[in-house]
């Protein structure tokens, strides 16, 4: 209803408010289209657009201008053809796995994945009979050895959570392609600034945009980036049915964070280097698991694959669980928290929190010990942060 008779009631005028699109100027910021639906003047156009990708917007679960601006930008940054923003990182991962797998299928997954993915795969094993083989992701020949007639997906992380393992993406993606597998890579810890897995042969990239892309600990979201149109359509169709789509306001907040991502990632990495190098020689620390350190098992491939080594790493305290408990009670600048990628430094105990769904054998296989802590280094002045960690260690 865009034109009204002169005698239309004030109650009707109050309901039907029409925004005027700018003419002759362009908004400096992406507008927030906080609307659940879009109206049409023509039934044929409405019918043609309904629940289709790439057409007119109809319903924000299927697409929204603000959300699409975010999706298009991330797709370009990741060298993909399309993207789907989701309500969370696990929403993105669930949309991918549930759309591409069927009962009885087999998945090859990197050992030591984010605990939420481990739990999801375990649930799919119980519910759907999905079988999972975990590999160390050290030698691409592991893919061929683990492959079966029912194998559909190879699942990897660019920088593994929390031990910082970086696998040879080009070689593993090539090995997967030789077996007609779809390679899915979680690029959250690297962000599109440090690595673009699609350039290295991956088929699908997922992010928890809650982390570095959002960057301010005030929004929960995820995104899937794909280059193949057929795969993209499968994921989009199922993701929309699943209800995994992102809210426009969440997408708008993520756009705001995205604009400063390259600048923030530089400082995250610089601060992480200083902290990792100092922790590595501290007498209370057994080992630091940051791929930027020369003695890390992934240092060589990380140097080739990444433009920098990331702001998250794990370190092992002498004294086990008691030492972890004491350390987390003493920190003041850093905060004990379940997430990462914001401006503030956070610390987490993987065995108790992020990877608590793993049993003792799985934790041991992933290298996670009772004294292992994960630190996501923030944007504080590095000397203030180090002083805090140093007093907590003392």
Automatic annotation (TrEMBL):
<dbReference type="GO" id="GO:0005737">
    <property type="term" value="C:cytoplasm"/>
</dbReference>
<protein>
    <recommendedName>
        <fullName>homocysteine desulfhydrase</fullName>
        <ecNumber>4.4.1.2</ecNumber>
    </recommendedName>
</protein>
<dbReference type="GO" id="GO:0047982">
    <property type="term" value="F:homocysteine desulfhydrase activity"/>
</dbReference>
<dbReference type="GO" id="GO:0004123">
    <property type="term" value="F:cystathionine gamma-lyase activity"/>
</dbReference>
<feature type="modified residue" description="N6-(pyridoxal phosphate)lysine">
    <location>
        <position position="211"/>
    </location>
</feature>
<dbReference type="GO" id="GO:0018826">
    <property type="term" value="F:methionine gamma-lyase activity"/>
</dbReference>
<dbReference type="Pfam" id="PF01053">
    <property type="entry name" value="Cys_Met_Meta_PP"/>
</dbReference>
<dbReference type="GO" id="GO:0017000">
    <property type="term" value="P:antibiotic biosynthetic process"/>
</dbReference>
<dbReference type="GO" id="GO:0019343">
    <property type="term" value="P:cysteine biosynthetic process via cystathionine"/>
</dbReference>
<dbReference type="InterPro" id="IPR015422">
    <property type="entry name" value="PyrdxlP-dep_Trfase_small"/>
</dbReference>
<dbReference type="GO" id="GO:0019346">
    <property type="term" value="P:transsulfuration"/>
</dbReference>
<comment type="similarity">
    <text>Belongs to the trans-sulfuration enzymes family.</text>
</comment>
<keyword id="KW-0663">Pyridoxal phosphate</keyword>
<keyword id="KW-0045">Antibiotic biosynthesis</keyword>
<dbReference type="InterPro" id="IPR015421">
    <property type="entry name" value="PyrdxlP-dep_Trfase_major"/>
</dbReference>
<dbReference type="GO" id="GO:0030170">
    <property type="term" value="F:pyridoxal phosphate binding"/>
</dbReference>
<dbReference type="InterPro" id="IPR015424">
    <property type="entry name" value="PyrdxlP-dep_Trfase"/>
</dbReference>
<dbReference type="InterPro" id="IPR000277">
    <property type="entry name" value="Cys/Met-Metab_PyrdxlP-dep_enz"/>
</dbReference>
């Amino acid at each position: 209803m865009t034109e009204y008779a002169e005698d239309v009631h004030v109650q009707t005028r109050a309901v039907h408010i029409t925004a005027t699109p700018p003419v002759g100027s362009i908004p400096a910021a992406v507008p927030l289209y906080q609307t659940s639906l879009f109206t049409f003047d023509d039934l044929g156009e409405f019918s043609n657009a309904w629940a289709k990708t790439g057409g007119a917007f109809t319903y924000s679960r299927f697409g929204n201008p603000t959300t699409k601006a975010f999706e298009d930008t991330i797709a370009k940054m990741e060298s993909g053809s399309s993207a789907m923003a989701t309500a969370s990182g696990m929403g993105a991962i669930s949309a991918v796995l549930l759309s591409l797998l069927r009962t009885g299928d087999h998945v090859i997954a990197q050992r030591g994945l984010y605990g939420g993915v481990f739990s999801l795969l375990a649930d799919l094993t119980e519910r759907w009979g999905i079988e999972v083989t975990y590999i160390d992701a050290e030698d691409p020949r592991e893919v061929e050895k683990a492959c079966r007639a029912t194998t559909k997906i190879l699942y990897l992380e660019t920088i593994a959570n929390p031990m910082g393992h970086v696998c040879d993406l080009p070689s593993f993606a090539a090995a997967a392609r030789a077996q007609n597998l779809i390679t899915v890579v979680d690029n959250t810890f690297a962000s599109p600034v440090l690595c673009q897995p699609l350039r290295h042969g991956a088929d699908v990239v997922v992010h928890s945009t809650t982390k570095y892309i959002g960057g301010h600990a005030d929004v929960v979201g995820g995104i899937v980036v794909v280059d193949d149109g057929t795969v993209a359509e499968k994921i989009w169709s199922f993701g929309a049915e699943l209800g995994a789509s992102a809210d426009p306001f969440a997408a708008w907040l993520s756009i705001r964070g995205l604009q400063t991502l390259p600048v923030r990632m530089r400082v995250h990495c610089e601060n992480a280097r200083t902290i990792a190098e100092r922790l590595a020689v501290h007498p209370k620390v057994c080992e630091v698991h940051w791929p930027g350190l020369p003695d890390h098992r992934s240092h060589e491939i990380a140097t080739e694959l990444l433009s920098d080594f990331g702001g998250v790493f794990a370190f092992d305290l002498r004294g086990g669980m008691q030492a972890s408990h004491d350390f987390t009670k003493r920190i003041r600048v850093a905060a004990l928290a379940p997430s990462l990628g914001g401006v503030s430094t956070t610390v987490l105990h993987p065995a108790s929190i992020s990877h608590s769904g793993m049993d003792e054998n799985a934790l041991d296989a992933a290298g996670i010990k009772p004294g292992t802590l994960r630190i996501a280094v923030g944007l504080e002045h590095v000397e203030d942060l180090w002083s805090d960690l140093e007093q907590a260690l003392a």
